[in-house]
Specification:
InterPro entries: Hist_DNA-bd, Histone-like_DNA-bd_CS, IHF-like_DNA-bd_dom_sf. Keywords: DNA condensation, DNA-binding. The protein is α+β, with helices and mostly antiparallel strands. The protein is 49% helix and 26% strand. The protein contains four helices and five strands, in the order H-H-E-E-E-E-E-H-H. The strands form two sheets. Strands 1-2-5 form a three-stranded antiparallel sheet. The protein has a two-stranded antiparallel sheet with strand order 3-4.
Length: 103
């Protein structure tokens, strides 16, 4: 599914025009990006959490020459899927986890 498909689905399920659905999607994405950029986590219960993570500086290898290179520290976006999302994607794993918790 690409962005156009997502906008069309949002519009159809919520009785919106595609323009309005696109505006809502733009606002959602912009809001999440702004919050994560500021260091805040955005948690959508059942779906997942968007947050930023810091990566330490490290030494890597140039794959073509094998020479060691320094990779600087950076901040990267991170997404952690929620339990409900995981259960929808892999119901068997969710069932095993529930059985294990019930013991």
């Amino acid at each position: 599914m690409n962005r156009a498909d997502l906008v069309a689905t949002l519009a159809a399920k919520n009785d919106l025009s595609k323009t309005a659905a696109n505006a809502v999607l733009d606002t959602l994405i912009e809001t999440i990006q702004t919050a994560v950029k500021k260091g805040a986590a955005v948690q959508l219960v059942g779906f997942g959490t968007f947050k930023s993570a810091k990566r330490a500086a490290r030494t890597g290898k140039n794959p073509s020459t094998g020479a060691a290179i320094k990779i600087p520290a950076s901040t990267v976006p991170k997404f952690v899927a929620g339990a409900k999302f995981k259960a929808v994607v892999d119901p068997k794993a969710a069932k095993r986890k529930a059985e294990k918790a019930g013991k």
